[in-house]
């Protein structure tokens, strides 16, 4: 009988591809400094590359910068610098940024590179020679931020609520457009409508996720117009061959970078010194190839540039008689307050500040891990301090970091070696065991618990492997977390520290010795496999853990991710410093060192008591209550925002601005009594100030967002509090009469940091929203959140 019938061992892992893989990111505009959006696209490619190399598959990873075009030209002009000099500065900024976050492309291409210019000329000449390019005139809208020609249908009037000024915006990205009349060269995109449909039809996974492929298919089916491919008024770019009064459109120029790197128009590329590569101490050498082979296997892009990559780029490639890439992976956005993080939205945050909040020696690794674990390419992900804290504290400090400390700690492992278990534990039959037998084998030192952990160790790599080929970093990291959590459970159940203590008293007791060395060996094996599989996501921290366990470099591959590899008797390094200090419940101030634990007082840990008191105090400062919503309508300037009147009492109203679209529409909220917090510091969202925030939860699997469900009969003003919480002096739980009264500590305006501290304690458990494990209630009963899985966060 097996508990684990679908588990796979390494023997059944995906076969290696025949040729080296070629992966690309978009090339980044250099009109501003790199931000988290750029980082995310690159991290997906970097972690994929690192994973492939962990599987000993040769890879070429291409990234770079998009230097030409009106937008970059304008940025340089604003700084009073020549465009090329500006791009040189920005090139250095991007390279440094990549190095700091351990992103290591094999080539970091610039569109001002000589070989790229030659490739673009060749592309143009070939399209022209095929009569795919002809001279025409463009009269229409142009969006400078997107460097895109925008059809009339996609332009809308947007009124500024403050000034009343009306601006024309593109509905694609909600950015301003300008009217353009220009003589242009045009590309015969219309001619490629049927070939594009045929290509999509014949390649079911050419664009993923599937819903994006369907969107593109329907768009192409509805008809394609020819597109402009030159700009007359733009000087910063590559001139049209034989007609230098025109500049080649920045998107043709940019898209060609992918084939430049593969040697277009020739068929050989030498990666010599003139091509930049990133220098980083975590760069994996040995498995890079110097020449990527076209077609690219994976091209990663954000959803905002899908049209260019899923329609224009394949059409250009078909026109050039080149094969189309194998797979386009389209990811969603990182948002802040549910709006895309971008320079123009002004909601960027400084990555160095985030790293300071995380603190410790491996803050970069933790940040990479957070972005890759929290995101799912199919949806947008909202960035918050809450997410950062919960991942660092739970996954990294409590689970992974703690496990490393435990298996190397002198208190459990006084010999400071990989322990020597009985020989039968090292039997090769356990290397592939993924199915747990009903009973432990007779006459074996291994218990059923041991076998369960061995099976988990042996089956994790295949799960990570399957997820990574789909670029599902969330599932890949989830599989490693699951191994860590099973290992932690195993350690809790077996309490090796007790055995170590018993052994200290009775050093000759062979039975205890066997038990302890077996348990410790299993723990080390679990941490070794987890660390190896974490290398793509946290290259420095995971390598450091493997160093501590003295695992040789040649054993750090996916092939070694099974039980029985660590060499018994090897000396290990039992340092006590934590890999990831916890982010404390104080304001998220930058920290250098983890705080020292406080001494225990009166039999109870004083820091725990203080912590609870601090949490209760933070909660009491916030006014959580029921409100009623009326006049709900869409924000005039932001598609995703809803504006409502919030009734706080029979006489008091306020304004709510919420980013609940697409989960809720204005009509879904009209007249509803909902859970909220009403005394936060007001915040302006697209020109309208919001004073109230709704409480909702986002399902961590499906990404759907649901409002907390008030108890039956809830009334405006009902207070919300965690069970067992003292609301005010003389307050008794469930007392309706005093439940409406304010708490003694309630603040007039709660600052953001204070509120985030409270939010950090919110989690869904068994369909109940809880604050540090205590269900939220009103005097009328419990608040519910049905249909949201356990562990999801509410906010
Ligand atoms: N230069 C073009 C791409 C040319 S490729 C031939 C460009 N550059 S960009 O700098 O604006 O964006 C590059 C990538 O960053 C895109 O994939 C985009 O989706 C991604 N991101 C920018 N902001 C983002 C978020 N807030 N979240 C996630 N990724 C987003 O477009």
What does this structure look like?
- By secondary structure, the protein is α+β, with helices and mostly antiparallel strands.
- The protein is built from 21 helices and 34 strands.
- The strands form 9 sheets. A 6-stranded parallel sheet has the order 3-2-1-15-16-10, with helices on both faces. Strands 22-21-20-23-26 form a 5-stranded antiparallel sheet. Strands 29, 30, 31, 32 and 33 form a 5-stranded antiparallel sheet that branches.
- Helix 9 links the parallel strand 15 and strand 16.
- It is globular, with a radius of gyration of 29 Å.
- The two termini are 43 Å apart.
- 5'-O-[(L-methionyl)-sulphamoyl]adenosine binds at residues 26-29, 37-38, 40-41, 66, 254-255, 301-302, 304-305, 333-334, 340-342.
Summarize the structure.
This protein is of the alpha+beta class and 795 residues long.
Characteristic terms for this protein:
795 residues, alpha+beta, six-stranded parallel beta sheet, five-stranded antiparallel beta sheet, 34% helix, binds 5'-O-[(L-methionyl)-sulphamoyl]adenosine
Structural class: alpha+beta
Distance between the termini: 43 Å
Number of separate helices:
21
- The largest sheet has its strands arranged as 3-2-1-15-16-10
Poorly predicted regions are 1-5, 268-274, 589-607
| Average pLDDT for all residues | 87
Task: Name the ligand types.
Answer: 5'-O-[(L-methionyl)-sulphamoyl]adenosine
Largest sheet, strands/sense/barrel: 6 strands, parallel
Beta-strand portion reads 15-25%
Number of β-strand runs: 34
Over the alpha carbons, how many angstroms does the gyration radius reach? 29 Å
Helical content (DSSP H or I, runs of 4+): 25-40%
Global morphology: globular
EC number: 6.1.1.10
Biased composition (Low complexity): 589-604
Region (Disordered): 586-610
GO molecular function, one term: methionine-tRNA ligase activity
